[in-house]
Amino acid sequence: MFAAAGIAQQSVSSSSQLNSDSIPNDWSFEADAYYYLMPNDKNTTTLIGTADHKALHIEARYNYEDQKTFSLFGGYNFETGKELVLDLTPMLGFAVGNINGLIPGLELNLTWGIIDYYSESEYVFDFEEKENNYFYTWAELGITPFDNLRAGAVTTRTLLYKSDPEFEYGALVQYSFWKMKAMIYYFNPFNKNDSYLIPTIGVEF
Questions:
Q1: In this structure, are residues 125 and 135 in contact, taking their beta carbons and an 8 Å threshold?
Q2: What is the DSSP string of 74-92?
Q3: DSSP secondary structure of 100-146
Q4: Are strands 69-76 and 78-80 parallel, antiparallel or unpaired?
Q5: Residues 51, 196: Cα–Cα separation, whole Å
Q6: Which of 35, 53, 135, 168 is the most exposed place for a label (fewest CB within 10 A)?
Q7: pLDDT 10s digit of each residue in the chain, 205 long?
Q8: CA-to-CA separations, 55 to 25, 79, 189, in angstroms, rounded
Q9: Is residue 162 classed as helix, strand or coil in its secondary structure?
Q10: Contacts of 46 (CB under 8 A, 6+ apart)
Q11: Left, alpha or beta for 68 (phi > 0: left; psi -120 to 50: alpha)?
């Protein structure tokens, strides 16, 4: 009887573990840190964290819209296409800190084979002064010739630091390994006085 009970208990435990392992985890998370190495300004770290559950998208940022500013977004993920895959995430959020405002935004990812285009755009409606309303964008055009290596071009328009040109352009290189990615952005490469680097590291879990 004790032997039979032990075998039955072991079977139930194995079955429970199997059922637990077979249940998919619908949540996915990502954390990224961007370190701005500015020759004519103070170095800055931008932090971004995302959480996705099926179509639900949640995103938190710090030092993104402006220095010492926290923003939080909620959005919905759409995906369509087979060979040419389009991912869209319309979002709505708010910012508190140096900027206090309402922020509608859109993240877009277009992939065709080894070529991809990514952009994130938003418009900040400042609660205090309409003159502070601001359009922000970050866009990348990349190519992935090897599984772990991606390279391409990047452009941005931001209030995070003082910049003479309205839009800035640069190059990027990304290397992925395990669940991590390491990137480096080089902006304004043809202008030594305004050129700067952004080393970046990200992890998915």
A1: no
A2: EEE-EEE-SSEEEEEEEEE
A3: -EEEEEEEEEEEETTEEEEEEEEEEEESS-GGG-EEEEEEEEEEEEE
A4: unpaired
A5: 30
A6: 135
A7: 334 444 344 444 444 444 444 445 689 999 999 999 988 788 999 999 999 999 999 999 999 998 999 999 999 999 999 999 999 999 999 999 999 999 999 999 999 999 999 999 999 999 988 888 989 999 999 999 999 999 999 999 887 766 555 789 999 999 999 999 999 999 999 888 889 999 999 999 9
A8: 14, 9, 38
A9: coil
A10: 33, 34, 36, 61, 62, 63, 64, 160
A11: left
CB 174 within 8 Å of CB 159: no
- Show the tokens assigned to 149: 């290596």
Assigned token pair, 181: 């990615």
The whole model's pTM is what? 0.83
Distance CA 121, CA 133 (A): 14
Kind and range of the H or E run holding 172: strand 168-177
| Domains delineated in the chain | 25-204 (2.40.160.40)
